[in-house]
Design brief:
Elements (H helix, E strand, L loop, with lengths): L50 E5 L4 H12 L8 E3 L4 E2 L2 E2 L26 H7 L11 E4 L4 E4 L2 H10 L7 H4 L9 H16 L1 H7 L3 H24 L12 H20 L7 H4 L1 H13 L1 H4 L4 H11 L25 H11 L1
Parallel strand pairs: 1-2
Antiparallel strand pairs: 1-5, 3-4, 5-6
Helix pairs in contact: 1-3, 1-8, 5-7, 5-8, 6-7, 7-10, 8-10, 8-12
Length: 345
């Protein structure tokens, strides 16, 4: 998220309105909610190389779109650019040509020469825009319009609307199968409110009461996800098939030990020692499915949170741990390994 044009006097890192005595973080809604469609006559038709995706490797919401794009084989159909990990007064900025950052396509804006910040695209589309400058942003190069900046809707466009342009191996990838749709949408509701957004509610809370309310809700829902995975045949959230549920939960869990435990004070337990089923699930996705591993950059993740959120970490010191960022697939922390052995006996 970032700053709106009509709110320039408030720092973009003032995540909670100072006038809100509840101290609770309240996420605003995305304002661009158009949809790419393969139906004839669509305002935004499914065409190769018509759209450009702007993301941040640091952002869990943008991360969803990168994973879905790769799983559906859309790399040659929808190019992307990642912004720099550092969010400052003007929001997300593009990397300069002399900066060498990890990850593919962390470059200056390839479409708008001279643009230094994502916000400039928003004001080019609408000079009176007063919302947030978000990643992901899905941009229509032909119409010079923003299609959407709502990640949950962008990934669903990717699931189906470009299928006529794809080879059979990717066309048949079904991330929202009809037989699981109601279950997935049910889990999406509490996963988003309590876990995906729950870490932000915990970290950006400005009162003790708001923090404790958010963090206890977060861990109750982590317990719920753990119980589900512990009783599931696996290896994915709903069994043998990767679905939207895996994408939406992964982008929070992969960041949990690296930043949320210390930076957002989500430290009742960590994933690697406190949630064996979640730990096994997230490592399986990272180490065995390239779409997850290749779109995960711990450098972007750790530096963004710790150096952009000045109200939480005013000196911008980035902790070195945990080491490693993610454990190998066949390795657990000693205490967790002992507990697993005891359980299995």
């Amino acid at each position: 998220m970032s700053q709106s044009k009509t709110d320039k006097d408030q720092k973009i890192t003032s995540w909670v309105d100072p006038q809100d005595k509840s101290g609770e973080f309240k996420r605003q809604n995305s304002q661009f909610r158009n949809f790419i469609s393969k139906k004839p006559g669509s305002e935004f038709p499914a065409e190769k190389d018509r759209y450009h995706l702007y993301v941040s490797y640091a952002c869990p919401w943008a991360h969803r779109t990168l994973i879905a794009r790769n799983l559906k084989g859309l790399e040659d159909i929808i190019p992307f650019t990642s912004v720099h990990w550092h969010m400052q007064e003007k929001g997300w900025r593009f990397a300069t040509s002399d900066e060498q950052l990890p990850g593919k396509n962390v470059t200056p804006d390839p479409l708008h020469k001279g643009f230094t910040h994502l916000r400039e695209i928003y004001f080019k589309v609408n000079p009176d825009y007063s919302g947030r400058f978000l990643v992901p942003t899905l941009y229509d190069k032909k119409a010079e319009k923003i299609v959407s900046n709502e990640s949950s809707e962008i990934i669903r466009m990717f699931y189906t609307e470009f299928d006529d342009l794809l080879p059979e191996e990717y066309k048949k990838v079904d991330l929202l199968p009809d037989k699981l749709k109601s279950d997935i949408e049910g889990s999406n509701n509490w996963t988003y409110n309590d876990i995906n957004n729950g870490v932000y509610k915990s970290g950006f809370a400005t009162t003790q009461e708001a923090y404790e309310k958010a963090v206890t809700t977060l861990f109750k829902s982590l317990d719920r996800a753990e119980d589900h995975l512990a009783s599931s045949p696996g290896p994915f959230y709903y069994g043998s098939q990767i679905t939207e549920a895996d994408i939406r939960l992964y982008t929070t869990i992969i960041r949990f030990d690296a930043v949320y435990v210390q930076h957002f004070k989500c430290n009742i337990r960590d994933i690697r020692s406190g949630y064996p089923a979640l730990h096994k699930w997230v490592r399986n996705l990272y180490w065995t499915i390239p779409a997850f591993r290749e779109t995960t950059s711990f450098e972007h993740i750790k530096k963004h949170y710790t150096k952009s959120h000045k109200q939480i970490n005013p000196l911008s010191i980035t902790p070195l741990g945990p080491i490693p960022d993610i454990l190998p697939l066949d390795q657990d922390v000693p205490a967790a390994a002992a507990a697993i052995r005891t359980t299995n006996q």
